[in-house]
Amino acid sequence: MDSALKEDKPGERFVAERYQILSALDTNGESPVYRAKDSVSGRIVAVKFLQANRQYDALALGRFMQAAEKISRLSHSHMAPLLDFGLAEESKPFTVVEYVEGRNLVDVLNRTGRLRFKQGVDIFIQLTDLLDFLHDSEVTHGNLRPGYFTIVWDRDENPTVKLTDHGLEKALVFDTTGRSDRLRGNNLYLTPEECKGTALDARSDVYSLGCLMYEALTGIPPFASKLSHEVVQMHINDEPRPMREVRSDLRLTLQIDLLVQRTLRKNPGQRQQSMRELKDDLLHVKQRLAMVQAVDQTSSHSHLIAFPSTSWSAAAGPSKLGSGLRMKIILPIVLGVFVVAGSALVGSILSAKYVGEGKTSKTSSDDYLWQQCDRLGQNYLLQGELSRAEAEYLKALVIAERFGEHDKRMLLTLRRIQDV
After folding, report:
1. CB under 8 Å to 6, separation ≥6 — which residues?
2. CB half-sphere exposure, 169, CA atoms < 13 A
3. pTM for the complete prediction?
4. Which of 244, 301, 370, 418 could form a Cys-Cys staple with 399, CB 3.0–4.6 A?
5. 125 neighbors 209 (Cβ within 8 angstroms)
6. Phi, psi torsion values for 199, nearest 5 degrees
7. What is the pLDDT of residue 294?
């Protein structure tokens, strides 16, 4: 930390003769952050001194200034804008960003232990949207960690997240080949590439975000040890335990578990290849969650018959539903969630040959098509290919509608979708 900041009282210290230090926000690490007032605009800002106790040569400072200039030209709804940057006394690099009222992810996790599943998915969808924007702008963050994100909740407990640190420290500690001297201190979110001294790219951010997702949803980092060098070796060699095994008490789906496991593959070529792909995967998780919640809510308001078991005979006849209310409610909800969510998958189904204009009569051909889709869905599910399984079950659902709301095919297909 800059020694002058230790000695001066709040309000008596100015940075670059413009930013009046008001209070400390985070002074525990090597890059202290202060709440300050811009004497020109009057706005409240956050001033950060990057690696304040270290000295850098002209080459490193030049990389910092160049990277900061690029970031300062970018704007995104989930990123606090970089308002100013430069060198303070003794050539200490500093940044000035918008001050965001809220709690950073470290504070949230310390307070609550973990994020609720739905909130976590919403937060990481927002972050993938931001990081996809940065990657399109040819910016790799390269230093993602929970303290760099601030979350604000509205009255309905809906979260909005903002990136409040732009990862400019990497310009000071990385050389032109991507090698880093950052392998010390907190290594929980490093990538295998960084641990091995190889170049970073967008897929490196996918890995670091996977570490954050794992910790945020379970309350436990995927790799942890009291010894820093052991964590580095874990990032290089070890596979994380499945989240559902680590926290069997939580209702984490197989889909989100497999998604996060893929982000943490050691080989970058086996991860999601872009933030856009990861965002699409998370949106799919959110759509499925909304569908299941809609079905569960409908079930909770009805005393009607439960879903049948997965084994049934066509000769057994239709199940008794009491009134037809449940099926009349469930089917529009299941299909409506996907339509409202803009699912391209349902769009393709509705335009496929299985759907005609109006209700098709019950025929042996329809039964054959339904059985084919149902069988394919089961095969894909056994292979762990959840997206393909769901696609086949949704086709089966559209076909099952032709047999009427009391037909067992309809109930069985809805149960299959829940099981996915």
Report:
1. none
2. 21
3. 0.68
4. 370
5. no
6. -70, 150
7. 65
